[in-house]
Amino acid sequence: MPVITYREAIRHALAEELARDANVVVLGEEVAQFNGAYKVTEGLLEKFGPARIVDTPISEAGFIGMGIGASMLGVRPVMELMFWSFYSVAFDQILNNAANVRYMSGGQINCPIVIRGPANGGTNVGATHSHTPENVLANHPGVKVAVPSTPADAKGLLKSAIRDNDPVFFLENTILYGTEGEVPEGEVVIPLGLADVKRTGTDLTIVTYGRCVLHSLAAADLLQKEHDISVEVVDLRTIRPLDMDTVLASVAKTHRVLIVEEQKPFASVGSQLAYMIQREAFDELDGPIHRLATVDAPAIYSPPVEAEQLPNPQRVLNAALAALG
Amino acid sequence: MSNPAATIVEKPRASPAASAAVNASLAPAAKIALHRTMVRIRRFEERSLHLYKDAKDNVKIGGFLHLYIGQEAVAVGCCSLMGKDDHVITAYRDHGHAIAVGMELNPLMAELCGKATGCSKGKGGSMHFFAPDKNYWGGHGIVGGQIPLGAGLAYGIKYKGLKGAAMAFLGDGAVNQGAVHEAYNLAALWSLPVVFVIENNGYSMGTSQARSSAGDLAKRAEGYGMAWGVIDGHDLYEVRAGMDKFLRAAREQSKPAVVEIRTYRYRGHSVADPDPPNSTYRTKAEIEEYRRTKDPIQVFQNALVAEGVLTAALIEQIDNDAREEVERSVEFTRASPYPTAADIQSDVYWETDNPSQRKSQGRLFFD
Ligand SMILES: Cc1ncc(C[n+]2csc(CCOP(=O)(O)OP(=O)(O)O)c2C)c(N)n1
Ligand SMILES: [Mg+2]
């Protein structure tokens, strides 16, 4: 199986869907002539031309709203936010229009739009550029939210997202762009709403997603080697729809849960998960559900200190030991 | 890197704006100080770029670094007109303005490297320099987001009955943010004493002005009934003469305006944006042409030489002083500590930093 980067996987998904469906267009800041701020869209302008790969001015409310409007008419815009952090500029369009128009029209209007871009800390870009809004987005019924951790998942989920008839918000990670993984050639379509057990184990379930999957797998290795503890790592892959069946099956096996997320802890994705696990698997639990999140403060710039604000393998390991009592 | 101190161009260009009252009234020492500030900015920026690329233990810059090289006359010209009730706010390309309002280099370099002695205690980084004591309100990372704040500074000035003005700087790409237009309307509707200063350096990242903006940039002010103008930002005298008029109207008659100052950035948008030949949007020849004919330090230096204010020896000395001062800031930074992990949660709330005066109840932090 070919080994490609997360960045290439996303690019391949875009190229394949652009080739498959003439309604697919890619819009965003610097996506065309500059080849993308993070080079995800490199080469697409050359291949698909300026009518389908479009550079926008720095007008997020305007161009995201325009994409939503075009999607109502059956265009399938894949909009790049240079950083998901800039979604706040287009908040009204995303959450009042994209999320609500189907409902408010009694199901007459669909919004088959994808908004994609990176949403992560860890590169010292500070408080305004390090938001992880998956919880905020997922709080709105009507939208779907995907946060892939591997190249294969990125490709398969993005293809599903583009084919989906609802608004899908696709959260990538600048640190993952360069990571490599095996991706099957040809049609890879992973349905939205299917979690993936990235490592099987018996003593503890770590429920996680995005880059924290990598931290959790690294910690799981160490826990096995140094502590003889067997950890199961469940990668949610999508936050909404949320695959509780896979989570609950794992909890029924291990009876201990640690949630790991690169989120501020208050009202995070993990808060919702913890509520649902205790409600649906209370009798399976041998101890309280633990959680590791980002230290609760805006993202600090200082490079060595930001590393301590975010989850990392060592912090996951410590949290896992604590969860095991 | 060309050294402006090393060359005195054959035929100094006479600046028509030199005789404007705001410039003619400057004492020689004041003119030299303006030149010095531009040179300090340039040396600071060059050293930062070098540090970014050649990180050493304890002096490392992470994240973004947006340099001001080529644009010096804009910040220095504008900020040199500030009175005690005038205020400034800008975007992430904020080092030049910080130095122009009088911030010292030590806390700036320390901030770039994320040290606790930085102007924002290492919490903000390159994009977030602040000095409220110098009427400098940052340093903002979201394109256009600072512009309503600039209108707000003007609102505050007016509300308090002060005879001041706010200068709100933005880029040629930022003019297309909705928040900018909402701020324009508020400023015009309520006669706020604010000058919106568009630093048009030709590009927003890799997108030229022509590919991002319909129509003239500052002329959009007409739609709001605001005054507007276009200034040559390569010539510090022009910047001062042009801006003085708008600042006076703001201070004295509470009239807002939109001003486009034409300038040019020599370096990539940020350090991640490569110089030619790897640039996707401009040529080496274009940059060289600006450097050769319009370099703001060179242009002003030539004018001062022609006036007999600057000599070759003095130019050299100013440059050496600037280099040494920058080097001292690197040493200061090297010797400075990083914040600690415990510092992550300070400066979030006023109440946690002033626990004895806390009035609210309940948990402020979670987990
Ligand atoms: C809302 C928002 N969108 C996009 C960005 C990414 N970005 C940062 S600077 C920039 C270009 C801005 O260009 P311009 O306004 O001309 O200012 P300059 O960088 O030339 O000083 C872009 C697209 C951002 N920081 N904020
Ligand atoms: Mg610009």
Which descriptors apply to this entry?
heterodimer; A: 325 residues; alpha/beta; Rossmann fold; 2 domains; 7-stranded mixed beta sheet; 5-stranded mixed beta sheet; 12 helices; 14 strands; globular; B: 367 residues; 41% helix; disordered N terminus; binds thiamine diphosphate; binds magnesium ion
Briefly characterize the structure.
Chain A has helices spanning 6-20, 44-48, 60-72, 91-98, 101-104, 134-138, 151-163, 211-227, 244-254, 269-281, 303-309, 313-323; strands at residues 3-5, 24-28, 53-55, 76-80, 114-118, 144-146, 168-172, 180-182, 196-199, 204-208, 231-235, 238-240, 257-260, 290-292. Chain A is α/β, with parallel strands linked by helices. Chain A folds into two domains: 3-182, Rossmann fold (3-Layer(aba) Sandwich), CATH 3.40.50; 196-323, 3-Layer(aba) Sandwich (Rossmann fold), CATH 3.40.50.
Structure commentary:
The complex is a heterodimer of chains A (325) and B (367). Chain A is of the alpha/beta class and 325 residues long. Chain A has 12 helices and 14 strands. In chain A, helix 8 (211-227) packs across helix 12 (313-323) and helix 9 (244-254) packs across helix 10. The longest helix of chain A has 17 residues, at 211-227. The N and C termini of chain A lie far apart (41 Å). In chain B, the strands form 2 sheets. Chain B has a 5-stranded parallel sheet with strand order 1-2-3-7-6, sandwiched between helices. Chain B has a two-stranded antiparallel sheet with strand order 4-5. Chain B is globular and about 65 Å long. The N and C termini of chain B lie far apart (50 Å). Magnesium ion is lined by residues 171-173, 201, 203-204 of chain B.
